[in-house]
């Protein structure tokens, strides 16, 4: 066996996508941290092998399980070659990835700030061009000075889809929020950690930079949170901050409206809730959610703070592993199901919001689930209004979609 790969390979938590390649459905895998330039395409016929790479089975045991469970025949040599390719792409958690992460994390922590990872791809790199782009998005949406909710703005749901597809929703919710941002002094941004472990909340002491400059990290609060969350464990997946887009895409809009003032930020990435939607456990059973809520709740009760959940709604269709493409009826049903989740958000009811995904066994795959739930827990009872619901295309055939919405929550 190739000794350069682990004997019992464990696949990293990655967000899989299905694409058509040479007329065949293939599983597309890539390193979400962008530490590797390699991508992997696995034909559907052998893709089940990756689900068995759990760090417990040897190559031989994976081969046997494939034959028994799926009727798939592969040789040890074939599987070893597959693992080697996955390892080269830094997709094996207990392989070459370990050294690559240590090197990248050291560089990240020693840098002056966390540099934008999506500038030039999702939005312009230059401040003047960025301002022109965002102002163009804002000018294109309807502006209203009236709002149905009362009280101070305390929370927001902001998409984290790319601006090309989601700019109208971004613009609607941020334009509506703008009048209430003038006195905000602290912003907590809870972003989806697409490759995060179940129940995790991951902190960083680095300041997120945008083309406008760096948004100062409130390291005093971060350290208080880390102490309550069992120290180093709060930074266990800090490397994910380097390229995760969820916080960054909300931070750019925040900075656009607050760049004339010194607004401090606490950025935190929220891991998967698969352990909850599967019925295995409750949100606080894994990770450090309750400790985070206790400390952060005390902080925002005494500060003029805004909590932002940087999360999208549903991810459905063949691009996300569903068997059938969306048709008109499916899109209508999706909108109905999404509206129930939106209603729970606007009512400030975290348990009702979470129970909807539990009941459907995560059929919609709401990737902002943990970030939105945690925001609602921190702002228990805050109520609000929604902006810009949309179903954005997620494949070339328009058979898959990502649904998004913006929301503002007030303390009433």
Biggest sheet layout: 8 strands, mixed
- CATH topology description of the largest domain: Protocatechuate 4,5-dioxygenase, Chain B
| CATH homologous superfamily label of the largest domain | LigB-like
- What is the approximate shape? globular
End-to-end Cα distance, whole Å, is 64 Å
**Low-pLDDT runs:** none
Q: N-to-C SSE series?
A: EEEHHHHHEHEEEEHHEHHEEHHHEE
Total strands: 13
CATH architecture descriptor name of the largest domain: 3-Layer(aba) Sandwich
Number of helices: 13
Q: What is the CATH top level name of the largest domain?
A: Alpha Beta
Q: How many structural domains are formed by the residues?
A: 2
Helix content: 25-40%
What is the average of the pLDDT values? 93
Structural class: alpha+beta
* Beta-strand residue percentage: 15-25%
The whole-angstrom Rg is 21 Å
């Amino acid at each position: 066996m190739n000794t350069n790969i682990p004997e019992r390979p464990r696949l990293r938590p990655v967000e899989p996508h299905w694409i058509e390649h040479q007329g065949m459905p293939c599983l597309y895998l890539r390193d979400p941290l962008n530490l590797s330039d390699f991508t992997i395409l696995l034909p559907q016929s052998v893709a089940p092998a990756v689900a068995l790479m759990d760090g417990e089975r040897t190559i031989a045991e994976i081969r046997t399980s494939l034959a028994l469970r799926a009727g798939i025949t592969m040789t040890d040599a074939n599987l070893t070659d597959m693992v080697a390719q996955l390892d080269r792409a830094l997709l094996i958690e207990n392989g070459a990835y370990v050294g690559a992460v240590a090197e990248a994390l050291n560089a990240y922590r020693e840098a002056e700030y966390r540099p934008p990872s999506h500038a030039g791809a999702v939005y312009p790199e230059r401040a003047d061009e960025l301002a022109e782009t965002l102002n163009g998005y804002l000018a294109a949406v309807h502006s209203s000075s009236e709002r149905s909710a009362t009280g101070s703005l305390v929370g927001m749901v902001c998409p984290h889809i790319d601006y090309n597809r989601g700019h109208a929703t971004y613009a609607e919710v941020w334009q509506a929020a703008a009048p209430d941002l003038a006195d905000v002094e602290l912003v907590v941004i809870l972003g989806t950690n697409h490759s995060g472990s179940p129940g995790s909340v991951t902190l960083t002491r680095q300041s997120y930079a945008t083309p406008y400059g760096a948004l100062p990290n409130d390291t005093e609060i971060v350290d208080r949170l880390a102490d309550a969350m069992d120290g180093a464990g709060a930074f266990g997946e800090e490397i994910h901050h380097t390229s995760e887009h969820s916080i960054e895409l909300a931070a750019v809009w925040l900075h656009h409206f607050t760049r004339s003032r010194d607004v401090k930020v606490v950025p935190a990435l929220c891991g998967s809730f698969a352990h909850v939607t599967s019925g295995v456990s409750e949100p606080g059973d894994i990770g450090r959610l309750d400790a985070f809520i206790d400390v952060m709740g005390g902080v925002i009760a005494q500060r003029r703070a805004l909590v932002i959940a940087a999360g999208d709604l549903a991810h459905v269709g063949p691009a996300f592993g569903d068997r059938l493409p969306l048709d008109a009826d499916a899109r209508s049903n999706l909108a109905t199901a999404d509206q129930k989740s939106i209603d729970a958000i606007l009512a400030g009811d975290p348990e009702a919001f979470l129970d909807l995904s539990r009941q459907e066994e995560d059929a919609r795959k709401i990737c902002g689930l943990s970030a939105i739930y945690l925001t609602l827990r921190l702002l228990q009872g805050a109520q609000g209004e929604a902006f810009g619901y949309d179903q954005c295309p997620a494949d070339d055939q328009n058979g898959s979609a990502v649904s998004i919405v913006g929301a503002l929550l007030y303390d009433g």
